[in-house]
Amino acid sequence: MERRKAALVLSGGGARGVAHIGAIEELESRGFEIAAVAGTSMGALVGGMYAAGHLDSFREWFCTLDRYKVFSLMDFSLSVEGFVKGDRVIRAMEELIPDVRIEQMPLPYAAVAADLLTGREVVIDRGGLYDAIRASISIPSVFRPVRRDGMVLIDGGTVNPLPLNRVRRTDGDLLVGVDVCAPFAADPAPRAGASLNYYKLLTASSQIMQQHIAQLMCRLTPPDLLIELPADSYGMFEFYRAEELIKAGRAATRTALERLASGRADR
Fold this sequence. Notes:
The chain is an alpha/beta fold.
């Protein structure tokens, strides 16, 4: 069977980004050959591990994380720039998977960040892989920003949460987007009377912003296949639910592929 080439784009979404692993597994099992990857935030992390050829080791490591291990990876700080330094988790990953230069990886790869000083989108497709990942996952108020080349880099989700226009394309490939911060699925009525706090306000407002930017991006650069996991399906920091998230990613991918097949049949 001839394998179909895909240019893969992975969104941010905190712990829901673990579902990208399941999406990749399902795509490959259905005969897709992923030819290039671009990602934002957790999409940059998972996409980087895949493009470097280390997704299996990364998956195995991630599935060992329980609540305690997730907490132990958080190097909390009193800094006003963010309550997590972000160094400890990067070091833990480097012990498992050595750093590599992006231009030397088996697949083309790009990570998206944003420069806090200018507001510009920053596409990182050269240099150290972990430098790119650390910049792209710098969620404002959570992780400290990354200072690099006169820039202050923060999470790319602030400017391009689903960077469909940043993945390298080749003739005949399919543009595949995986959005794990998709519009809310649950009935909002039960939440209407729920109490709000700083974290809930910040998270929900950020998710709404990213959803609207992603929808605009889908109109500007329409994907051939869009795989969606609603933002209210799992919490931002529920990394300890890795196995469940991977299964959810596979299920969402199956649903999207069935929808694509049905659409082709209709034509």
